[in-house]
Design a protein that fits this description.
Elements lengths: L5 H24 L3 H31 L14 H31 L3 H32 L2
Helix pairs in contact: 1-2, 1-4, 2-3, 3-4
Length: 145
């Protein structure tokens, strides 16, 4: 199987999630609760599709005897920038999963005060993970390839 398309798919899913998150935030700020709910569920589904695609790519490449990762080729200033973004992205990608699940659960159960309290943390972290996923892709496959 050719796994070369997966990084672009993953970046597209991350970028789509970021756009949906911002749209969801705008909608709730305008009091459009039903539209907010729909967009945020779509963001969750998009992020879930990303996770499935990401795991498929890395597991599939490993099982196929191929290297599971591409090494960053940048030199000089780009290396510490790239690895700082990568490390923060990776740590927060793990942290964000339970936060998203709790936030989504509270929203769907209409436990709005609790939902708002955790969403204040979930939104910026989830947005950061989504945006930095795209930044990592661009740096790894386009800027310094």
């Amino acid at each position: 199987m050719d796994y070369s398309i997966f990084p672009a798919i993953n970046a597209t899913l991350n970028g789509s999630s970021a756009i949906l998150l911002v749209l969801g935030r705008v909608l709730i700020a305008r009091g459009r609760v039903a539209a907010h709910r729909t967009v945020m569920i779509t963001a969750f589904c998009t992020s879930t599709a990303f996770l499935i695609s990401y795991l498929t790519y890395h597991i599939g490449r490993s099982l196929g005897g191929l290297s599971a990762s591409v090494h960053f080729q940048g030199v000089g200033w780009s290396r510490p920038v790239y690895f700082t973004i990568l490390i923060s992205h990776t740590i927060l990608a793990v942290v964000i999963v339970p936060l998203v699940l709790i936030t989504l659960s509270r929203g769907l159960k209409q436990r709005y005060p609790q939902h708002r309290r955790i969403a204040r943390w979930t939104f910026p972290l989830w947005l950061y993970v989504s945006v930095t996923g795209v930044v990592i892709y661009v740096m790894l496959y386009h800027l310094f390839a």
